[in-house]
Specification:
Layout lengths: L5 E4 L5 H12 L3 E6 L2 H11 L4 E4 L5 H11 L4 E4 L16 H29 L2 E6 L15 H21 L4 E6 L16 H12 L10 E3 L2 E3 L2
Parallel strand pairs: 1-2, 1-4, 2-3, 4-5, 5-6, 6-7
Antiparallel strand pairs: 7-8
């Protein structure tokens, strides 16, 4: 991956997002770490070093996304990692719908909002990679997990968004894919078997695909999964 490429990562102050930032930095990519709190992003950027930049970006706030675009400018890689899991232990009949709405606001609409901001610039420049961090809980092939109904449905919708944006960008040099990182040990899932560093490799691989790589796909490592 050429060193002139710049990647913006949402929700990158900790967990998987931070690990992806470190992995891409190690591959020679310039990195912009973003988080809802600018101080958190700046602290992480300072820890990572290597010229890592930081910016406040709240994916649920249109003005915050607009300000990040104006300040950061065009990027070559977008890793849409920011996400929430608010309804663990629920079921589709009893889950409070305000939790579902809050989940969709981040996991789907937030990802969509950031893509609308940064993807057109990639298409104009003729090269780009967009990676949505998804989950097998939203896969029809695996079976949507009813124990986190809002989260699962939000990831199903995110997978649908991936295919639509990939179709929109096809032929422009921009590849748009979703990654299933597997059960990853983060604050969201502290007892998961896979480390954030391990999962970050899969995300970074999707973010640095060659020009003949897949688009509109659901990826897990070097495998393409059924939706």
């Amino acid at each position: 991956m050429a060193p002139e490429h710049t990647a913006l990562i949402t929700g990158a102050n900790r967990g998987l997002g931070r690990a992806v930032a470190a992995e891409l930095l190690g591959r020679g990519v310039r990195v912009v770490v973003t988080a809802r709190c600018g101080d958190d992003a700046a602290r992480t950027a300072g820890e990572l070093g290597g010229g890592t930049r930081a910016h406040a970006l709240d994916v649920t706030d249109p003005e915050s996304v607009r300000a990040a675009l104006e300040s950061v400018g065009p990027v070559d890689i977008l890793v849409s990692n920011a996400g929430v899991l608010l309804d663990a232990g629920s079921d589709p009949l009893s889950v409070p719908l305000d939790l579902v709405e809050a989940t969709f606001a981040v996991n789907l609409i937030g990802s969509w909002r950031v893509a609308q901001a940064f993807l057109p610039g990639m298409m104009r420049q003729g090269w780009g990679r967009v990676v949505f961090v998804s989950s097998a809980t939203g896969s029809f092939r695996v079976g949507l997990y009813a124990g986190t109904p809002g989260y699962s449905a939000s990831k199903t919708a995110l997978n649908g968004l991936t295919t639509m944006l990939a179709a929109q960008a096809r032929g422009t040099g921009v590849l748009v894919n979703a990654v299933n990182p597997g059960l990853t040990r983060t604050r969201m899932m502290p007892s998961a078997p896979r480390s954030a560093e391990e999962s970050a490799v899969d995300v970074a691989d999707a973010a640095t695909l060659p020009d003949n790589g897949p688009t509109g796909a659901f990826l897990r490592g070097d495998r393409t999964l059924d939706w």
